[in-house]
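Below is one such record:
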Amino acid sequence: MLKNKLITALSACIAFCTPSSATGITYTKADSLKVVRLLTEGIKQGEGTNLMLYYGMKMQGIPYVPHTLEVNKTEKLVVNMRQMDCTTFVETVFALALTTRDKSVKWSDFCRRLEQIRYQRGKVDGYTSRNHYFLWWTENNERQGLVTQPLRKAAGRYARRQVINIDYMSVHPHLYSMLKGNKADIATIARMEKASAGKEMMYIPAAYTGLTEKQLACIRTGDILAIATKKKGLDTTHIGIAVWGKDGKLHLLNASQIHKKVILEPKTMKQYMSGHPSQLGVWVIHPVL
């Protein structure tokens, strides 16, 4: 009798925790329940709540795990509330914030927002439809009216221009499990990379990230910060959420490869970037909420 109960309990646990793709979305029941719980709590917050900060802080402690979207043979929307990398962390927080702005607590509405953020024209249409570079992510979400770039208007003397020249994915397809050996997708990615050549993004140089909140008024708590890089073939190497700390300095709330979890980085942004000489500075992307 006890053995049967243990088997039943174990089976229920496996069903609860095992990812399913039956609906075209890869997730576990635990993921969907957590999303609904967070939305139900979030919608009760006051009108002036900074939703990016609120949901970002709720994610603290979730383990950092790379490549969480590379789990299917063909591209599907993946929701993983148990493990995150820097991009899926920001996307999940943004999707939660948008769903709350929409005054919804529905799982389906959250998934619709996540798909809109993550994919070109807001729809899954194969591996190449995902916004693999943060330039593409920014352009896609700006076209949809979901984000703005405050550095275009209010960067003052601190901003600089980064000329984009991306080709990392097409040059190194073996590093991407869903791209490796797929000549058609490699060619498509290469064409998309070429179309982006010469575009410019504004950034705040690393040396200026230690300035005060008043001096860097173009950066608000809850903005998305993307770290611009000097690395050949890439535009950015890391993203997170801006937080002006109690010390008056800029910090990054992020899924950290260094700390192996989602964390509000104890170091200031300037201290963090000083240890990474390949980092140029930060793009500033403002969510429209």
In short: The CA atoms of residues 230 and 278 lie 5 Å apart. Residues 2-17 form the longest helix (16 residues). Strands lie at 25-26, 77-78, 147-148, 160-163, 200-205, 224-229, 236-244, 250-256, 261-264, 279-287. Confidence is low (pLDDT under 50) at residues 5-15.
